[in-house]
Amino acid sequence: MIANAPTFHLPIGLDYTLTATEQGWQLTVWEEAALTEQRVCPFLWKFRVELPTLNEVNSILQTILGEAGS
């Protein structure tokens, strides 16, 4: 996480990184999961997108949390 980026509160088990890019922001969100013999990555799913504004980052996070339109 970078210092000048806002913090978003996600439920336990979800995590994210927000990185400034030349075009805006890269948002990566994932649901944590324990490693097992069958699961070789520490997440159930992972979503990465580059967005031009923090408003769009907030919108995507709200959509992931099912809060869009609230």
Helix/sheet category: alpha+beta
**Mean of the pLDDT scores?**
81
Number of strands: 3
* Oligomer class: single chain
Question: How is this structure best described in words?
Answer:
This protein has 70 residues and is α+β, with helices and mostly antiparallel strands. The chain has a domain at 19-31 and 46-70. 16% of the residues lie in helices and 34% in strands. A three-stranded antiparallel beta sheet has the order 1-2-3, covered by helices on one side. Strand 1 (14-20) and strand 2 form a beta hairpin. The mean pLDDT is 81.
Topology:
Elements: E1 14-20, E2 25-32, E3 43-51, H1 54-64
Structural key phrases:
70 residues; alpha+beta; three-stranded antiparallel β-sheet; 1 helix; 3 strands; 16% helix; elongated
Give a brief rundown of this model.
The chain is of the alpha+beta class and 70 residues long.
